[in-house]
């Protein structure tokens, strides 16, 4: 389980006034029909993936080559507006043992900096094995190294977003089943 920092709920503002939330709470913080944007934030690139409006299927979108943060944020905000995005899922680079990896601080800093531009719900999703999973699939599909390199980050963002949506949908289905069984 990851952490929530200053989650906003109808009861009021908590701590820092930022909308960083648990993955399962993200679905409660966006409007019906809004999409999610998955991000695989790296030093040189940001892989992007987009959900469908039903929050069931993630699709790789593109890879942004990082420049200055303000330019990157402007590009992301334009995309957020154009695609009716209600929340972001950022890959959380934990170590295999579950401890925070060396890149966790930079991903957290990226999220906090983005929130200074726009208050939008952000959840962190464990990204362990994302790159390995997509790399294996691309090797199995006989993609050249150049094609794998060009697609890796967007596909990793897609894997991260899909795993977050699967978890949200599984928990929502489980909650619905529990509600149904208690009303019998």
Describe the fold and architecture.
With 184 residues, the protein is an alpha/beta fold. It has a single domain, classed as Nucleotidyltransferase, domain 5, CATH 3.30.420.140. It contains five helices and six strands; from the N terminus they run βαβββαβαβαα. The protein has a six-stranded mixed sheet, with helices on both faces. Helix 4 packs across helix 5. The radius of gyration is 17 Å and the shape is globular.
Estimate the global geometry from the Cα principal axes.
Answer: globular
| Rg calculated over all Cα atoms | 17 Å
Q: Give me the CATH architecture, please.
A: 2-Layer Sandwich
Q: Would you list the SSEs in sequence order as H and E?
A: EHEEEHEHEHH
- Say which CATH homologous superfamily is assigned: YqgF/RNase H-like domain
CATH fold-type name = Nucleotidyltransferase, domain 5
| Count of extended strands | 6
Q: How far is the N terminus from the C terminus? A: 32 Å
Mean pLDDT value: 83
CATH class: Alpha Beta
- Characterize the quaternary organization of these chains: single chain
Low-confidence runs: 1-16
Largest sheet: 6 strands, mixed
Structural class: alpha/beta
- The count of helical stretches stands at 5
